[in-house]
Amino acid sequence: MPTAPMDRIDERQLAALGALNAIPANERAPTFNEPWEAQAFAITLALHRRGVFTWDEWASTLGRAIRDAQASGDPDTGSTYYRHWLAAIERIVRDKGLTDEPTLARYREAWDRAAERTPHGEPIVLTPSDLA
Amino acid sequence: MSDHDHEHEHDHDRDHSHLCDVQLRVRALETILTEKGYIDPAVLDQIVEHFETKVGPHVGARVVAHAWTDTKFKAALLEDATRAINESGLFDQIGDHLVVVENRPGEHNMVVCTLCSCYPWDVLGLPPVWYKSAPYRSRVVMDPRGVLAEFGVTLPEETKIRVWDSTAETRFLVLPQRPAGTEGWPEERLAELVTRDSMIGTRLAEQPGARP
């Protein structure tokens, strides 16, 4: 069963890999494809540094997030990796009692409101009124 | 947070900003954790900058090239990689639990993380997309030769292939074999032959002259 997806990866990604390998080792593909991936990655490292969780706990939480995504049909070809990563942070901060789902939902909605009232091209800043 | 908030006229939609679902989720996390004092946005910026500009396979390549030219360092590296790298004074300090496995004639090593994507960030940067993919994670264990073939590598049948499964606490780096014909090369030039994939074990170090 894993044969089909691997074949697809071959054509698309292994071809690109050949190109990557041909360039000097200090030039490489962008570390993060989008800024939110970088933020999600950095949040995890910062929380680990603070001792919120061990790498073992992180790996098993991320592993679970990946398995859950696979179970609900994610092709898990690596391109959706930071989505799993993000789901794992949300899970581990809830499990560790740093926050809870209602709070997360409240802040997501607040950021959504902040974006709505921010003219295109200007930095989006959260204000207390967004949280009301 | 859901998309129903954004069912506007197209023209109107262009007038204001929009954050997609994942952006909203990350911003929510960052704001809450900052307000509660668990994280500091300035530290997040430093972490991102570090990974975007400082670490990457060029670090591992320098370690490998040094091991190729300094037998004492190589022995120390195979004994305790983190200690050898940190005590050499030649590289930035790295985190614990790095294990270096050496390719030798008749023995080839490959690295995977079957659970998620544990990877030696300090010496290789962040993993490539294929390393994180389910097909690689599952197939390299069952069929390492098949995976190698897809990377264009064919090893002699008698070569033993060992696949190392990384964990959160133990991260592996492959020490590829030094290509023939590089006697007397300075480390800098040797490091150019050491690709990221050769340190994961999905390829070999490049042959001198193979590059255009």
Characterization of the model:
The complex is a heterodimer of chains A (132) and B (212). Chain A is mainly alpha-helical. Chain A contains six helices and no strands. Helix content of chain A is 65%, strand content 0%. Chain A has a domain at 32-99. In chain A, helix 2 packs parallel to helix 4 (81-95) and helix 3 packs across helix 4. Chain A starts with a helix and ends with a helix. Chain A is globular. The longest helix of chain A has 19 residues, at 3-21. By secondary structure, chain B is mostly helical. Chain B folds into two domains: 11-52, no CATH class; 56-200, Nitrile hydratase alpha /Thiocyanate hydrolase gamma (Nitrile Hydratase, Chain A, Alpha-Beta Complex). Chain B has helices at residues 10-15, 21-35, 41-54, 57-69, 71-79, 81-88, 121-124, 134-142, 144-150, 187-191, 196-200; strands at 98-102, 107-112, 160-165, 171-175. In chain B, helix 5 crosses helix 6 and helix 8 (134-142) crosses helix 9. In chain B, 42% of the residues are buried. The chains are: A mainly alpha (132), B mainly alpha (212). Chains A and B meet through helix 1, helix 2, helix 3, helix 4 and helix 5 of A and helix 2, helix 3, helix 4 and helix 8 of B.
Which pair of chains forms the biggest interface, and how many residues does each contribute? A-B, 74 and 69 residues
Shape of chain B: globular
How far apart are the termini of chain B? Answer: 51 Å
Strand content of chain B: 5-15%
The 3D shape of chain A can be described as: globular
- Could you give the order of the helices and strands of chain B? HHHHHHEEHHHEEHH
CATH homologous superfamily (4th level) name of the largest domain in chain B: Nitrile hydratase alpha /Thiocyanate hydrolase gamma
Helix content of chain B: 40-55%
Strand order of the largest sheet of chain B: 1-4
- Tell me roughly what share of residues is in helical segments of chain A: 55-70%
How many domains of chain B? The number is 2
Average pLDDT level of chain A? 80
* Radius of gyration based on Cα positions of chain B: 21 Å
